Amino acid sequence: MAIRNTRLTPNLLSAALLTALIAPGFAMAQDAGSSQSSDSQEQTASSDTTLLDKVTVTGSRIKKVELEGPAPVTVITAADIEKQGFSTVYEALNTLSQNNTGLTQNELVAGSFTQGAQFLNLRGLGPGYQLVLINGRRTAEYPHPYNGQSNAVNIGSIPSAAIDRIEVLTGGASAIYGSDAVAGVVNVILKTNYEGDQISLRGGTTTDGGGDSGRFQWVGGKTGERWGLNYAFEYLHRDTIWAGQRDFMDSYRDDPTVDPSGYVPAVDGVRLVYGGARVWPGTNATEVCNRFKDFEAVASPVTGNVDRCFYYGYPATQTIRNQDQNYSAYLYGTYDVTDNTQAWAQLNYVQSEVVAAMGTQYISGGIGGGYSIQRIFTQDELGGPDAQAGVYKEKNIDVAAGLRGTVFDGKFDWDFTLSHTRYKSDSHQPWFLSDKLLGYFFTENGFDLDRYFNPLTPATYQSLIGDALTRGDSQASQAQFVISGDLFELPAGPLGFAAVLEGVTQKYSLTPDERLLPTYTGADAFWNLTATGGGGSRDRYAFGVETSIPITNSLKGSLAARLDKYDDITNIGNAFTWSAGLEFRPVDSLLLRGTYATSFRAPDMHYVYAAESGFYTSIFDEYNYRLAGYDPNDTSPEASDVRNDFTYQVYGTRKGDPDLREEEGKTTTIGIVWDATEKLSFTLDWYKIELEGSIADLRGYLFREEAACLLGTDRNGNAVDPDSASCAHYTDMVHRDEDGIVDQFSTYPVNQAMLRTSGLDASVKYQLDTDRLGDFEFGLSWSHVLKDDEQLFAGEPIENRRDDKQYFNFRSR
Fold first, then answer.
1. H/E run at residue 82
2. CB within 8 A of 272, min separation 6: which ones?
3. Does position 522 have pLDDT exceeding 50, yes or no?
4. Contact 66, 58 (CB under 8 A)
5. How many C-beta atoms surround the C-beta of residue 311 within 10 A?
6. What does the alpha-carbon distance between residue 241 and residue 237 come to, in Å, rounded to a whole number?
7. 99, 93 contact by CB (below 8 A)
8. Which residue has the higher pLDDT, 305 or 130?
9. What is the pLDDT confidence band of residue 671, given thresholds at 50, 70 and 90?
10. For a pLDDT cut of 90, what percent of the chain falls above it?
11. Among 402, 411, 399, 417, which Cα is nearest to 337's?
12. Secondary element (H or E) of residue 712
C-alpha cells in the first residue's frame, strides 16, 4: 500500500460533498493498489472529513452498518472491477440492480442517434436523470443527443485503468449537487495514491462467436519528498458481435409473434404493389426470388399465389455489441507548497473509434402510376456487413487543477478547483443519395424493373451512397470552492459542516451534414435520412451548505440546502432544493435510516437550443379514428386492433423550446441495515420518486387536441371552440393531404405533468474465510418496482406503465 505523509485526504472534494450521505464518523479513501480487508479499517473521530496523517483505507464491506449513512450508497472498487472480470466501467455499473436498462438505447439498438455511447438509466427515468461526476466534478455530456432529443453523459468514455472506485447514490441529491441528481449520483473517483508500476495484458472471446477483445493497462505512481505523480494508460479493442452469431436472434422467425404461415408483409424483401394487390408485372415471382441468395418465395394466404420474396434473415445484420477501440491516458500530480497547502493537477484524455452497423438498408415509397415499392438490400449486395456500418470518432479531454489545505489550526479543510472538459465527436454514416438512387432505378422510360428485380453488385452500391457526417462538440468549464470541518462540539459529538460555491459554463454545438436537414432542397440529399442540429450556451452559479448533526449517541441527522441560479435563455432563474436525513443505531449492528430530498432538472441544452430537424415516426390519427365512429377511450383488445389501422408512419419536424421550465422532483427513502453476524449483512430500502413537469415531445397530445379542434368536441364529449387561439396553434402544426391523411407535422418539447415510481432495494452479503482455500465473498442484490405511473398532462388519467406489456423497463432485477 502506498501512503504519502500528508494531512490531506486525496478525495477531499468527494468526501466534503458526500457529507451526511456517507456515514459520519470517517473519511473514506481507497488505495488503488490495495485490497479491502477488515484489518485495514481505520475509524476516525470526526463527523466529516478529518485531518489525517495517513490516507485511510475503506474496511470490509461486509460490516455495512459502520459504513452506511442515511441514504443508500453502493461502492464499486477497482479491485471489484478486476475480480469480476469487467473490461469497462459501463460493464461494472450495468450490474447494479437499480440500473434499469430495459428501454435504454445502448449498443443493442441498431441505428440509434448515439451508437458511440453507453448510458445508465437509474430507476428507469431515463439516461439524463442521474448525475455523473468525475472526482466530484461535472463532465462534458455526449455531443450527440440521446434519441435525437436530450443530453446525457457517456459512461463508455471513462477508462477503467484510472478508476479507484465508483460511488453510486440512488436517490435525489440536488441539494448537494444541483441539476440532474433526480434518480441518483454516480461519482467516479480516479486514482490519486498509487506507488510502483503494474502492467497487465488481457484477452478474451465469447463462446458463441464474435466479440474478441484485448486490453493493455499500465498503472503506476512515483513519490518524492514533497511531490507525487500517478499515471495510467490503457488500450482496449473489442470486435463486433453480430445478431447473426446468436441463434435466438438471427432470423425474423425467432420473433414469437410471427405468423406460423411465414407470411409477414412487414418483412418483404422485394415487392411491387399496385392498387393494394401484389403483382409482378410480366415476371415470374419464384424466378425473381431465386436470383437473390437470401430471399424466399412466399405465397399469399389469400390468393395462394407466390407474389413476393421475404428476407427473414434481416435481424442478423445488426450489431448487438459494436466494434470499438479506445486509447486513454491519465495523469495526476501533487506538490506540497507548505505544510498546510497542496497544489494538484489532473489530465484525463480518451480517444475512441466505434463501428456500428445500421441494420438492413431498404427503400420504399410511391413510384407513380398507383405503384409503390419496398426493396430490402442484403449484405451480399452491399459488399459485407462493414459496408453499411457507421463510424464514430471521438475525443474527450478533462483538465483540472487546484489548491487545497487546512485553516483555523487544521480544523477546516478547503479545496479550490478549476476544470475544463471537452468532448468532440464525428459521426460518419453511409447512406443512399436521392439523386443517385432514383437515377439508378428510374430511366427515361420510367421505372427500371430489370434493375429492381436483380441483385446489386457491391460496386454499384458504393456508387449510390454518400458519407453523412455530423460533428458534435460539448464543453464544460467549472470553478469550485469547498470548505468542510467541525463547527463546534455538541453533547453527542461535533457538528459537521460543509459549504460549496461554484460556477459552471456549458457550451455545445451539433452540426449535421446540410443534406440531412429539412431545409435542404438539392438533388444530392440523402434518401429518407434526417439529423438534428443546434447549439448554445448556459451559465450557472450555485451555493450550498450541509450539516451533520449528532442528536444523541445513537441518533444523527443531516440537513442540506442549495441555491442554483441559471443565466441562459430559459425561464428557470433560481432553483432552491433541500434535503434531510436521519440515521438511528439502537445497537451497533443495526441501522435504521430515512431521507427526504427535493430535486430539479434543468432542461437539457438540446431541448432548448435544437434547430429545426426532420424525422420519421408512427402516429395515431385520432381525428380519422373518431370520424369513423370509434371511441378513443376504449382500451379493449378489440379497440387496440382497430387503432393499429389508424396508426401509420409520417414525416415530422422538431425544434427546441426556450420557454421550458425546470422539472421538479422529490424523493423519499426508508431503510434498514443489519449486520446479523461479523460475516453476514442485510439491507432493505424503500424508495419513492415523484417528478412534476417532466419534459417530452408534444406528439400524442398534439393529435388528440387537433382532433378535438377539427370535430368541435374533445374525446369526452365536451365542446371545443375551433376558432380559439389554441386550436389555431394545434391545427397549424398538422398538415393533412386532400384525403385527410397526415403527411407532415411539427413538434417541440413541453413540460408534461407527472412521473412517479416506487420500489424496493434489497441485498445480502456473506464473507467466508478459510485457512486453505482463501477468502470468499458472496452477494445478492435485488430491485423491485412497485409502481411506475405517468400522467401526460394535468387532468389526464394516470397511466400504469409498470403493467403495460409494451413497456419494456424491468419490473424486477
1. helix 78-83
2. 278, 279, 280, 281, 371, 373, 449, 452
3. yes
4. no
5. 22
6. 13
7. yes
8. 130
9. very high
10. 42
11. 402
12. none
Cell 433560481 locates to 574
Contact 162, 130 (CB under 8 A): no
Give the 3-state secondary structure percentages of the chain, helix then strand then coil, rounded to 5. Answer: 15, 45, 40
> What mean pLDDT do residues 368-396 have?
81
Q: Report yes or no: 557 and 582 within 8 Å, Cβ to Cβ.
A: yes
Q: Are 374 and 402 in contact (CB under 8 A)?
A: no
Asked if residues 547 and 20 have their Cβ atoms less than 8 Å apart, the reply is: yes
Q: Is 503 exposed, middle or buried (0-12, 13-18, 19+ CB in 10 A)?
A: middle
The residue type of 195 is E
155: cell is 459512461
Interval 686-713: pLDDT, tens: 999 999 988 888 877 899 889 999 999 9
What residue has cell string 480516479? 190
How many other C-beta atoms are found inside a 10 Å radius of the C-beta of residue 445? Answer: 6
Q: How far apart are CA 575 and CA 538, in angstroms?
A: 15
SS3 of residue 633 by DSSP: coil
Backbone angles phi, psi at 417, to 5 degrees: -130, 135
Backbone angles phi, psi at 731, to 5 degrees: -70, -30
Contact 104, 122 (CB under 8 A): no
| Predicted pLDDT at 349 | 95
From the list 282, 420, 290, 428, the residue with the least C-alpha distance to 358 is 428
Q: ∠ at Cα 620 (618, 624), nearest 5°?
A: 130
> Is the model's pLDDT at 34 over the cut of 50?
no
Q: Are the C-beta atoms of 545 and 498 separated by less than 8 Å?
A: yes
pLDDT tens for each residue of 580-602: 999 999 999 999 999 999 999 99
pLDDT at 202: 92
How high is the pLDDT of residue 370? 67
Residue 186 · residue 134 · CB < 8 Å:
no
Q: All 3 cell numbers of residue 346?
A: 489532473
Is the pLDDT score of 111 beyond 80? Answer: no
> What's the pLDDT at 347?
95
The set of residues, in sequence order, having a beta carbon less than 8 Å from that of 276 and lying 6+ positions away, is none
Q: How far apart are CA 43 and CA 121, in angstroms?
A: 34
Q: C-alpha distances in angstroms, 694 versus 477, 499, 585, 748? A: 27, 30, 37, 14
Buried/exposed code over 618-645 (b: 16+ C-beta within 10 A; e: otherwise): ebbbbbbbbeeebebeeeeeeeeeebee
Cα dist from 506 to 500, 537, 562, 610, whole Å: 19, 5, 20, 15
C-alpha 294/C-alpha 291 separation (Å) is 9
Q: Which of 449-453, 632-636, 706-710, 803-807 is predicted with the least confidence, judged by mean pLDDT?
A: 803-807
